[in-house]
Amino acid sequence: MAISAIVPVYNGEAVLAKCLEPLRRMLRDGEIAEIVVVDDGSTDASAWIATQGGAKVLPSGGRLGPGGARNRGAEVASGDVFWFVDADVVVHPDAAGVLRGVLERTGAAAVFGTYDEFPAAANFLSQYKNLAHRHHHVRAEREAETFWAGCGAVRADAFRRCGGFDAERFPEPSIEDIELGIRLRRFGYRIVIEPELQSRHLKEWRFANLLRTDVVQRAFPWAQLMREHRIPPTLNVSFRERLRAALAWVLAGAIAAFLARWASGWWALGLFASTIAANAQLFSLFRRANGTWFALRAIAFHQFHYLYASAAFVACRLGWTPGRPRPSTTRTSA
Fold this sequence. Notes:
There is one protein chain. The chain is an alpha/beta fold. The protein has helices at about 15-30, 45-50, 65-75, 95-105, 125-140, 155-160, 175-185, 205-230, 240-260, 265-280, 280-290, 290-315; strands at about 5-10, 35-40, 55-60, 80-85, 90, 110-115, 150-155, 190-200. The chain has a domain at about 5-205: Spore Coat Polysaccharide Biosynthesis Protein SpsA, Chain A (Alpha-Beta Complex), CATH 3.90.550. Helix 1 links the parallel strand 1 (about 5-10) and strand 2. Helix 5 packs across helix 11, helix 9 (about 240-260) packs antiparallel against helix 10 (about 265-280) and helix 11 crosses helix 12 (about 290-315).
């Protein structure tokens, strides 16, 4: 089983060397067959860093977005398995072995992992966002209905049969990997989540890019996909997550009532305690990673996340669009 690591990059000189370091060791040890870095129109030293890192460097031919860049890499990759790794992701030293073992053991067409418990950026939002992402992947059913391309692999024949990433519909980072997973499942392929396939995320989240990502690049296209396809509830749109979002709205109402002096603050405190109980496993992860004070603040922010993400999701389902939606340009049935 030959594994081709495919890394799309756009102006990633600050992170790319760290991303390539473990992959280069795996290449040297024969765990992977090649590293293909697709330079998606970078204006910095990304291409030079990739060359120094032992990768085959391929220009995308213009700004294609991560989905299009991954497709470009898959066109020239020689492996039986395409292992997609984002340029701001550092895979664990055992990742190639874990990936190979899962593919051999399960026979799945696609496998993806999760971030570890040690996000590189120390600021609050980066810690919160990456740990919450890990929580959703670790707690999800092992048989997945979607795909994640931050650190995920697809067998080459399945990838080609499904048409790859829909780069025309998703010209910028969005849910192009989720949409690919939906098509893989419609073709009858298995997708498996493997929590032991771990990586560290180097991205530093700030409020503005977090909000834009969650609303414009996540909630809106998720709503569009759910209009088009019957998708089983999974990950952060599962029934339990929807109930937690409803609880966040009740808490917001209690806080508003307290501020308007319509109700006692004890109601809000009691409901906040209920949100901790409802998110007990996530709270435990937050606390284990950064202590009780961080966990309390992170759970509080998580309720705010539920408010804006669910509001955007519902608004999109009711017809609001932040721009003209793009129709699907790839096949969705066998």
